[in-house]
Task: inverse folding
């Protein structure tokens, strides 16, 4: 399965100055649950923010300018190459595209599912999740989490998948 996974706010913010502009207890739980044991594809800036391969996952970093090679980590020059590498190196594993905005924009037309954490707040930032045609997907609200900043785990499944 090819999917993307993201958290964004009501105003579609996903980042600010290279960082996630919120800290919400438990918000990243689903990311860990879904991606552990699978493949994560991310852009160079997203990888550099984290600074290392994610534990218990194989990471493919998309970069045309840098090379990252480590245990459970490799580099590809394009999203297409990253998906091909992931499929060859880890057949049968789910592939999750996890940012940033440029990769999300490319991936929306390719993925079968989008696992979106909708943060129920407007937060300032400089990086946004791209608009997409919700009519191409079936939306399921998997879980709503109350708290200081509420959020919902939502899955969009492509209708023609």
Result:
């Amino acid at each position: 399965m090819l999917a993307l996974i993201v958290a964004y706010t009501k105003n579609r913010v996903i980042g600010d100055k290279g960082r996630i502009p919120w800290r919400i207890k438990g918000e990243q739980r689903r990311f860990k649950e879904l991606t552990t044991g699978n493949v994560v594809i991310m852009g160079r800036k997203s990888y550099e923010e984290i600074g290392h391969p994610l534990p218990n996952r194989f990471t493919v970093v998309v970069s045309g300018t840098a090379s990252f090679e480590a245990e459970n980590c490799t580099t590809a020059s394009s999203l297409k190459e990253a998906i091909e590498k992931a499929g060859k190196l880890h057949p049968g594993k789910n592939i999750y595209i996890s940012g940033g905005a440029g990769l999300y924009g490319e991936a929306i037309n390719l993925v079968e599912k989008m696992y979106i954490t909708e943060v129920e707040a407007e937060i300032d930032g400089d990086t946004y999740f791209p608009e997409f045609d919700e009519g191409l997907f079936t939306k399921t609200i998997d879980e709503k989490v109350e708290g200081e900043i509420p959020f919902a785990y939502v899955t969009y499944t492509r209708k023609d998948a």
